[in-house]
Amino acid sequence: MRFLAFITLAALCACGRPPQPPEQASADTTAAALDSAALYPPAEPVERLLVATTTSLYDSGLWAYLEPMFEEEYGVELDILYAGTGKALEWGQRGDVDVLVVHDRAREEQFLADGFGVSRTPFAYNYFVIVGPSADPDSIRGMQPESALAAIHSAETTPFVSRGDESGTHAQEKRLWAAAGYDYDEVQQAGDWYVEAGTGMGPTLVMADEMGAYTLSDIATFLSYQGDIDLEVLVDQGDAMRNVYAVIPVTAARDSAMAANMVTFLTSPEVQQVIGDYCTAEYGRQLFTPAAGQDL
């Protein structure tokens, strides 16, 4: 709307009658102009911080909780753009956003090495889980994640829905397939049982539910959707399933000081407690574990 208003104003200034010189303006004209200025004062410039975040943090509702807290603390408006970690990193490389909040350490460290990011600061973690129908047709319940994927691949009957979007969750899935002894390119061509959703975590869970399929999810998004789907957590074991979230100020941020404030905010003791307490009463377990100061 502001852009359209600017175009309209520019057109009027370019095409309208030239204004009278001040010394020729009538008293009535001057009074009218003053009245108009009082009624319609110029808008104050609004500072904005653009944050690219993962769909799991967004779908879980955590950002809706943290956003107004940050805005009140620092007097800035946040624009939260959510996508897979791969897309968020692309936006950061192009300088389209000021801060990244993502979850794929290998690509985050490469992002820093390439000079696109200022620092990487872990602030929370949770766990990935493999979920599926309660009947568990491939009998993966309680297995280690690598063994579970191997069982699903061997059976080739129950669908497995992949994010397929180069997100942090998709990257984790690729690592698990490699740990299970499979080449991911071959998994993609293994048969109709392997389905790539190409979308965020929430919609992927819905798709898996509709298909009676297995999928890999972060626990926070799964719990947020649990009331709307019939899938169950079947595999949640192993350190390999830990899912670490980190904040990275972008080198090309329009306001580097404000971008750095996001690191201070997310790692502050007060916000760390908020993150740890988020929805624990509702779900009976932590969605996110605070991790400020940890080397993760």
Describe the structure.
It is a single chain. The protein has about 300 residues and is of the alpha/beta class. It folds into two domains: about 50-125 and about 245-290, D-Maltodextrin-Binding Protein, domain 2, CATH 3.40.190; about 125-240, Periplasmic binding protein-like II (D-Maltodextrin-Binding Protein, domain 2), CATH 3.40.190.10. It contains 14 helices and ten strands. The chain has helices at about 1-15, 25-40, 55-60, 60-75, 85-95, 105-115, 145-155, 170-180, 185-190, 200-210, 220-225, 255-265, 270-275, 280-285, and strands at about 50-55, 75-85, 100, 120-135, 160, 195, 215-220, 230-235, 240-250, 290. Strands 1, 2, 3, 4, 5, 6, 7, 8, 9 and 10 form a ten-stranded mixed beta sheet that branches. The longest helix is centred in the first third of the chain and has 14 residues, at about 1-15. The chain is globular, with a radius of gyration of 25 Å. Mean pLDDT is about 85; it is low at about 1-40 and about 40-45.
Question: So, CATH architecture of the largest domain?
Answer: 3-Layer(aba) Sandwich
CATH topology (level 3) name of the largest domain: D-Maltodextrin-Binding Protein, domain 2
Number of domains: 2
Q: Per DSSP, what share of the residues sits in E-state strands of 2 or more residues?
A: 15-25%
**Large-scale geometry:** globular
Question: For this structure, what is the CATH homologous superfamily of the largest domain?
Answer: Periplasmic binding protein-like II
Largest sheet descriptor: 10 strands, mixed
Instruction: Supply the number of helical segments.
Output: 14
Give me the strand/helix succession. Answer: HHEHHEHEHEHEHHEHEHEEHHHE
E-strand count = 10
CATH class of the largest domain: Alpha Beta
Straight-line N-to-C gap: 43 Å
**Model regions low in confidence, pLDDT < 50 over at least 5 residues:** 1-38, 40-46
Oligomer: single chain
Overall SS class: alpha/beta
Q: Please state the CA-atom Rg, rounded to the nearest Å.
A: 25 Å
Helix content: 40-55%
Mean pLDDT value = 85
